[in-house]
Amino acid sequence: MMLTLQNSTSHPMSFILLGIPGLENSQFWIAFPFCAMYVVAIVGNIILLHVIRIDQTLHEPMYLFLAMLAVTDLVLSSSTQPKMLAIFWFHSHKIEYHACLTQVFFIHAFSSVESGVLMSMALDRYVAICFPLRHSSILALSAVVKLGAAVLLRGLLWVSPFCFMVSRMPFCPSHVIPQAYCEHMAVLKLVCADTRINRGYGLFVAFSVVGFDIVVISISYVMILRAVLQLPSGEARLKAFGTCASHICVILAFYIPALFSFLTHRFGHRVPHVVHVMFANIYLLVPPMLNPIIYGVRTKQIRVRVIQVCCGKEP
User: Fold this and answer.
1) At what angle do helices 97-130 and 61-78 cross, to 10 degrees?
2) Is 40 exposed, middle or buried (0-12, 13-18, 19+ CB in 10 A)?
3) Which of 26, 52, 109, 298 has a beta carbon 3.0–4.6 Å from 246's, enabling a disulfide?
4) How many whole angstroms separate alpha carbon 246 and alpha carbon 96?
5) Which residues, 6+ apart, have CB-to-CB distance to 12 below 8 Å?
6) Strands (E), the chain
7) Whole-number Å distance between alpha carbons of 3 and 8
8) In contact, 224 and 129? CB cutoff 8 Å
9) Reduced to 3 states, what is the DSSP secondary structure of residue 46?
10) pLDDT digits (tens), the chain, 315 positions
11) Strand 14-17 vs strand 94-96: parallel, antiparallel, or unpaired?
């Protein structure tokens, strides 16, 4: 009786991450494609950062925002994948309490940062297409740095209360998290107290961050579409659309699984748990893997530079 009371009025020493409930016998093999995607994400984003760093012609707003996206992807994928692979291959299910809260912080903070960087890239495309002659003056290096710092600060300040509020709440005797990493809602379900304030704040952050970013992205592309349709030649319109295609693909790769995971965690009670867990894993791994591939394939300057680097022909 005293042990139960102690467990329900203080935080646990650790949590147990189950991995993918329902697919325990397959997790060993599932880990191989996850590992391959993680390696592609790490190598691809590091190469992208290296190419942008060494090529002076890529020190422009579009590529500087792309460098921010690459750093964010490295943090996002590395905050979950090593532990996930340890669970799948070595049955290392235990995660220390503070490590779990640290994982919650990095996942949500840098998801917010990624959304903000995508919003910043949409603004860059809007200025580049609608105000081409003033692009370099509107988005000077100082403006890019300030916008990037604001996006980072927003993510850190908005998400920090998650961990603070959870750390001050009592936990139930059950410390099992039925997925492969610590996520705010999953940890909140283990709390033995009224969590309406926490849930309400979570919804506020989600809608104030993602909602705001999606609105800005949507308005930017409506204005871009209007400007492009007014161009005199079909070739000019096609070229303008081509400069936005990579960004649109990256936006879809990030927001579709992210929104699905968010909505099913709160409202999708009829969605099979294994489907939710798989999408939760995909949303933190697939975008970091796809982003350098999309920009490497569709952006000629980056594609040529990457080939030179891989062939050992960099200056």
Assistant:
1) 160
2) middle
3) 298
4) 39
5) 97, 171, 175
6) 14-17, 94-96, 176-177
7) 9
8) yes
9) helix
10) 333 333 444 678 999 999 988 888 889 999 999 999 999 999 999 999 999 999 888 899 999 999 999 999 999 999 999 999 999 999 999 999 999 999 999 999 999 999 999 999 999 999 998 998 899 999 999 999 999 999 999 999 999 998 899 988 999 988 999 989 998 988 999 999 999 999 899 889 988 998 999 999 999 999 999 988 887 777 777 877 777 888 888 898 898 888 777 777 666 667 777 877 887 888 889 999 999 988 887 787 888 887 777 776 655
11) antiparallel
User: Hey, what are 214's tokens?
Assistant: 């999606």
Q: Are 18 and 179 in contact (CB under 8 A)?
A: yes
Distance CA 69, CA 62 (A): 11
Structure tokens at 122: 């949409």
- β-sheet with 176-177: strand ranges across: 94-96, 14-17, 176-177
Structural tokens at position 200:
């309400």
Which tokens hold the place of 7? Answer: 């467990």
pTM value? 0.91
